[in-house]
Amino acid sequence: MRLVLLGAPGSGKGTQASRLKKELGVPHISTGDLLRAAVAAGTPLGRKAKAVMDAGQLVSDDIMLGMLEERLSQADAKTGFILDGYPRNLAQVEALDGLLERLHQPLDAVVKLDVPPEEIVSRTEIRFKAEGRADDDPQVVRKRLDVYAEQTAPVAEWYQRHGMLKAVDGVGELDAVFRRILAALPGDRIAAHG
């Protein structure tokens, strides 16, 4: 199963991707984790990314695509993957499409977790009070949701136009959301558990 998981910050993508990883037997690939690992390991792309981040800039799509290509070329990703956090804009959609074509690994599905913005603010506010994560501050979350709506929502629209997007209600108990995601996946692609 080759899957892209979309959803606003705080929609539960990471939580559900971890569960899907176990269910489908494929790696969960978070571009944020990839970036941190490459920087920590001091790989050539990691060093480039660190220099960009140290200058206070965003890592370029080319660097991220290079890291993604390295990761998707590893043995455990040959049978599939769950992409979380990429693509985030239409340029990245095109880049990913080209990469997957070169690797002969077309996407099987794109699942978007739909969670109303106020529900996301409420969820992250609870985490902010418990853990104190700066990116969970309600004001920061609202700004991140605005950026998501501006940049990433068109990604979902693109996949919708191409008949690949499955929107899933991301509100409710974790197991219920997980079952909805599994039900949205192409049936012939799910592991024996399915």
Give a quick rundown of the structure:
It is built from eight helices and five strands, in the order E-H-E-H-H-H-E-H-E-H-H-E-H.
CATH homologous group name: P-loop containing nucleotide triphosphate hydrolases
Provide the spatial order of strands within the biggest beta sheet: 2-3-1-4-5
Mean pLDDT: 91
**Sheet with the most strands, sense and barrel status:** 5 strands, parallel
Radius of gyration: 17 Å
Q: DSSP strand (E) fraction? A: 5-15%
Straight-line distance between termini: 12 Å
**CATH architectural label:** 3-Layer(aba) Sandwich
| The first-level CATH class name | Alpha Beta
Total strands: 5
Order of SSEs, N→C? EHEHHHEHEHHEH
What is the share of helical residues? 55-70%
Query: Could you say what the CATH topology is called?
Result: Rossmann fold
User: Could you say which overall geometry the principal axes of the C-alpha atoms support?
Assistant: globular
The helix count comes to 8
| Unreliable spans | 189-194
Structural class: alpha/beta
